[in-house]
Each structure stands twice: as structure tokens, then as C-alpha cells.
From TrEMBL:
Protein name per UniProt: Homoserine O-succinyltransferase
InterPro entries: Class_I_gatase-like (IPR029062), HST_MetA (IPR005697), MetA_family (IPR033752)
Origin species: Shewanella maritima
GO MF terms held by the record: homoserine O-acetyltransferase activity; homoserine O-succinyltransferase activity
Pfam family of the protein (one): HTS
EC number from the UniProt entry: 2.3.1.46
Subcellular location field: Cytoplasm
Major enzyme class: transferase
HAMAP family: MetA_acyltransf
Site label Important for acyl-CoA specificity, positions: G111
């Protein structure tokens, strides 16, 4: 089934060239179907790149998904034209009276800044608080995962001495869990961040469950016991060249970055990166949409009262 996006969104052409089914708003208006409604709060600098990455994953699922794009403020973006933002993005005041099946909050290049010093931190907190009553399930990515764990559970992150960048091997929990259906015992995922969470604190928290971790990179998938919040401490949405682009950008800025781990063939930046996470990235988003959005969300989005946790599986 397709992901429905605004007419003329730049991501449409890219996704169609990859044989990913997308549908314009005008075409979808003629269909009689209850699609999943997903809101994306895009905090990344290059909005179009991140839109495309997330829509690529959403468009690979068997569900029809209607997507709204949300911005945190109306200030001009350095990397995305104001015309694009005004044409395709909504302000929070435009959506806060609505309910959504899912919300995705992206990462942000704010890993070395205290949360309270982020200029729009109050807006982030407001949207997270709103989501707990108006959204069936919230997917927090990377920086947003740290921010959500801090705001909702008062868990502090730890800053790293160097940026953790690369593609790391992860192990899933042995506990049967809907989110992990189809997952291999070991799988790869990209990381690009300046902080980490204490995995022992996450494992001991009564309201959280660690579903996957890496011996090198730490916790990766953390789910709230209510199923409403999924924290993905990494970037399953990244394109093959995203870590390379970040690495070259950091070099251009004179930051002397380390070569991303387990990423370039033979660990040589002159060779092509090896993408080994796309299948599990797609599976993760498909499982989230199916088991934590579609299976739990009410048909009538005006009633969000009947959402219950999954029971343990045999």
C-alpha cells in the first residue's frame, strides 16, 4: 500500500524511481479507506533528505499512510528553502487539536547542548506532552530518543569524548516481542551521536524495556511498557551515503572526525560505504506501524482511550 504525501513534494520523484509506491493527496482523496495518519516532526537541518529517508521506510509497509510534516518553528532554515517549508510543513497550532495514529520525532544536531539550552526545548516538551494523549504510538529517533527519555522518565544521557559514528552490530533480546518479529539474533544499525544512555538504568527502569543493544554502541531499541513510546537510539532511516556525507562535512569544518566504524569497505574512505542495515530498518518501521499503531489504534481517532499494552507472548 502507498504512503500518501502532499502533491509536488520533492521526495515523490526519488521514491517513485526506487519503485516505492507513493500517492498524491489528490489521488488518495478518491479512495474510501481508513489510512494510518502519521505526523513527522522534522528537526534535521536538511529537511528534504530526512523526509525522503522516512517516507522510503513508511512507503515499504503494507499499510496506507497519510503523512503530515511538522516544523518546530517558523524561522528560516539554513538548508531548506522557506518556500518548501511554507508549502509542505505545518505549525503545531495547526495540528494540536487533532489525533494521530503515529508520530515520528527525528534526530537533531544538538548532541552537545544541554536540553534546557536548546532554543526550542519548551516546544519539544509541549509536543511530547501532547503526544501522550493525542497519538497512539510515538517513535523517537536518536537525539529525540535522548530528549524523550529525559523529559518523560528523567533519565540523563552521558556525553561522549568523541562522536560515535558508524554501523554497529546489535543483539536482540531473547524475549518474544511483536516489534522484533522477523529480526535476526544479530543485526546492524547506524549511529551518529555525541551521547549515550546508561543501559543499566534503562534495563532497571520499571516502565521501560530494552529490546536490542550493541556491545559497542549501547542501547538501541527501548520500548515503554505502555507501548506508546518507542525510543530508537540510532538512525535506521539513514541512506547508504548519509554517514559519508556527515564525515566529509565534519572534515570540511576542520573537526578531524574519526572514520565511521564498520562502514567503508576495508575501512577506506576512498571506497564505497557498505549498507547493511536497510532490511532491518524497513522491518523495524513495518513492525512498529503494524503492531504498535495499526493493531492498537482506534478506528475512530476521536477516541484514544482504548489503547492497551501487548501481553507477553509464549
Amino acid at each position: 500500500m502507498p504512503v500518501r504525501i502532499p502533491d509536488n513534494l520533492p521526495a515523490a520523484g526519488i521514491l517513485e524511481s526506487e519503485n516505492i509506491f507513493v500517492m498524491s493527496e489528490s489521488r488518495a482523496a478518491n479512495q474510501d479507506i481508513r489510512p494510518m495518519r502519521v505526523l513527522i516532526l522534522n528537526l534535521m537541518p536538511n529537511k528534504i533528505e530526512t523526509e525522503t529517508q522516512l517516507l522510503r521506510l513508511l512507503g515499504n509497509t503494507p499499510l496506507q499512510v497519510d503523512v503530515d510534516l511538522l516544523r518546530i518553528h517558523d524561522k528560516e532554515s539554513k538548508h531548506t528553502s522557506i518556500d518548501h517549508m511554507n508549502a509542505f510543513y505545518r505549525d503545531f497550532n495547526d495540528v494540536k487539536h487533532k489525533n494521530y495514529d503515529g508520530l515520528i520525532i527525528t534526530g537533531a544536531p544538538l548532541g552537545q547542548i544541554d536540553f534546557e539550552d536548546v532554543t526550542y526545548w519548551d516546544h519539544i516538551r509541549e509536543i511530547i506532552d501532547w503526544s501522550q494523549q493525542h497519538v497512539t504510538s510515538v517513535l523517537f529517533l536518536c537525539w529525540a530518543a535522548h530528549a524523550g527519555l529525559f523529559h518523560l522518565y528523567n533519565l540523563q544521557r552521558k556525553l561522549l569524548s568523541t562522536k560515535r559514528s558508524g554501523v554497529y552490530c546489535h543483539q536482540r533480546t531473547d524475549t518474544p516481542h511483536p516489534l522484533l518479529r522477523g529480526f535476526d539474533e544479530e543485526f546492524y544499525a547506524p549511529h551518529s551521536r555525541f551521547a549515550e544512555m546508561d543501559i543499566n538504568e534503562l534495563q532497571q527502569h520499571p516502565d521501560l524495556e530494552v529490546l536490542a543493544h550493541s556491545d559497542e554502541a549501547g542501547a538501541y531499541l527501548v520500548l515503554s511498557k505502555t507501548n506508546r513510546n518507542l525510543f530508537v537510539i540510532g538512525h535506521p532511516e539513514y541512506h547508504r551515503n548519509t554517514l559519508k556525507d556527515e564525515y566529509l562535512r565534519d572534515i570540511d569544518q576542520g573537526l578531524d572526525p574519526e572514520i565511521p566504524r564498520n562502514y567503508f569497505r576495508n575501512n577506506d574512505p576512498q571506497q564505497k560505504p557498505v549498507a547493511r542495515w536497510h532490511s532491518h530498518g524497513s522491518l523495524l518501521i513495518s513492525n512498529w506501524l503494524n503492531y504498535y499503531v495499526y493493531q492498537l489504534t482506534p478506528y475512530d481517532l476521536t477516541d484514544m482511550s482504548g489503547i492497551t499494552p501487548w501481553e507477553s507472548e509464549v
